[in-house]
Amino acid sequence: MDHSLVTTTFDLEGYKVVKHFGVVRGIIVRSRSVFGTIGGSLQTLFGGNISLFTELCEKTRVDSYELMIKHAEQLGANAIIGVRYDTTELLSGVSEVLCYGTAVTVEKL
Question: What was the pLDDT predicted at 55?
Fold first, then answer.
């Protein structure tokens, strides 16, 4: 799928939606490792960006995004509109990241 056809908006300029497939999603549940927790805790002593946690969050978002793309491709979609992220802490140190949107087929105007 062309990633330029994945958007948070509900339309794509220059394209017309010709078919809706419904909601597609990518879900990742991830926990911090013991080493990551210790390293992140040490970084909090100095303040500022906690790079270990930032990297973990970014990797989790990318992974959930890629799963959403695969789900849409399996349905035959060539675009996804209305993309959103949601996150929930399931347990202490265990988080779910959900990336979802509406899978569609679009045609160039």
Answer: 81
CA dihedral 54, 60, 65, 67 (to 10 degrees): 170
How is domain 3-108 classified at the CATH fold level?
Translation Initiation Factor IF3 (3.30.110)
Task: Assign 39 a pLDDT band (cuts: 50, 70, 90).
Answer: low
Give the per-residue pLDDT at 45.
Answer: 58
Cα separation of 54 and 92, whole Å? 17
* pTM for the full predicted model: 0.82
User: Rounded to whole angstroms, how far apart are CA atoms 38 and 35?
Assistant: 5
Number of CB atoms found within 10 A of residue 85's CB: 16
Domain residue limits, the chain: 3-108
How far apart are alpha carbons 35 and 31 in whole angstroms?
Answer: 11
Q: What is the dihedral of CA 96, 99, 101, 107, to 10 degrees?
A: -160
For 46, which DSSP code?
T
